[in-house]
Predict the structure of Integrase.
Amino acid sequence: MDISGKLRQVNGRLKASKVGVVVEQAGEKLRLRATLPPKPGAKQTEPSQQRVSLGLPANPDGLRRAEKEARLLGAQLAAREFDWARWGHVAPSGPVWVCGAAIEAFEAHYMAAGGTVDTWVGDYYKPLRKLPPGAVVTAALLQQLVESTTPHSRSRVRACVAAGALAKFVGVEFDPKPYRGNYSPTKVAPRDLPTDVAIVEARNNVQNPGWRWVFGMMATYGLRNHEVFHCDLSCFPRVKVRETTKTGAREVWPCYPEWAEEWGLEYVKLPNIELDRSNQKIGHSVSAYLSPLLDFVPYDLRHAWAIRTLLFGWPVELSARQMGHSVDVHTRTYQRWISSQQIESVYQLLVGREDRPKPP
């Protein structure tokens, strides 16, 4: 991502404010440059131009945070309160990590071990980015991070996992288990999913051809928001989801092949959005555009597809494989959402079959 223009604007504002600190880009990360006192243990005795690692990504969000850090550094210098320990350097008396450097090193370790960018951003960086970049990683700081989230929530579980992994990486003794709570996906209230009639009516409210095509793909194939943008339709009406998605490559058949045909889904009409971004951000764009037009969230189209396959009598293994998750996840997530009315419909369908077993 090219942020050179925004970087010049940030440094322009810092210069105009006479902060005395410059934000620099080093590869995919951001750092600060300023005239600073000698580091602890250094041989030099006079202040010099030095750099401070922030561990922030070189993107617009990272720039916003880097500008705040630059102003903080400038204020500390002006007040003669600058301390290298606050910015990642302490006297060499033992293995000590500061948050910015620790997160940066942990990311490199995670990716080298085969991790994916989306999982890193969603499960680790998202909670860890709340840590102050220049603060020393301690058990107390990690506990504070975890307790800043809502108890018994998914965000609390995610913070515990990320904090525990970072603690293990840097050698800090911290056990997040006591703070995890009792959150479980099975305790989430069932969704009030749209009926198939409501889905058809909602599609008619989407006027933009590109977004209407996205809506149709999600409704017909049960795709995740971002997966619509990673499809191969060369075997239409079957679609292939490419390996760039969360769960790897897979094939999906339409539940209601009539929708695939009537809605002309074989003719790809992508909306005009930036695709050179993470899957998470692409998914957010889908939600941001479609949600105001609907009485439900776009992701409910995927859940409705899953329930529909159960009502159609598809084997659970088949539905789970096409959705890109395990049979266990599929069963725990969707079978508990089937309403009494839906069960009655399936019952009437099955007992009404002419080839069903008859009593003696």
Notes: The chain has three domains: 4-84, 99-183, 196-349. The two ends are 71 Å apart (CA to CA). The mean pLDDT is 84. Residues 99-183 form one domain.
